[in-house]
Amino acid sequence: MEEQGSRRRPLPVLLLWVNGLMTLGFAGARQQTELCNESLMLEKLPACGKFFEEMMKKVDSKKWCNLTEFIMYYDNFTQCTEREANNASCFWPNPLAEGFITGIHKQFFSNCTSEKVHWEDPPDEILISLILIPVMLTCAMITLVVWCSKRSDILV
Fold this sequence. Notes:
single chain, 156 residues, mainly alpha, 7 helices, 0% strand
């Protein structure tokens, strides 16, 4: 019997040890202990932009607003900026990287405005009918309920 009790004691210790390992990032989470080297990141990000610019030269400028034409180039650009930010011990996205990406967007996609739908009111005849029909139905239902509640002889 004492042997079983001695076997059970290490189990809580083992569970605490496993929990500690998982908390420290043993399960794949990476803790960031270094400070972000912003100057290194800002030095390396233009290389990503230059590569993206070279790739965009392959795409006709009339098709720059069609994402399917350059999605792979944009994905490579995004991965490059993320990699360079991580190499500089910076989180991604961060305000500096976002500012750089915004600059690239202004350079290539400033003429890509989404076509917004201009909503107009329907003609007055349709608008009046859309308003009056529910109002009249509501009044009719209220009248019917009040009339039926006053005529208790019908309900018996």
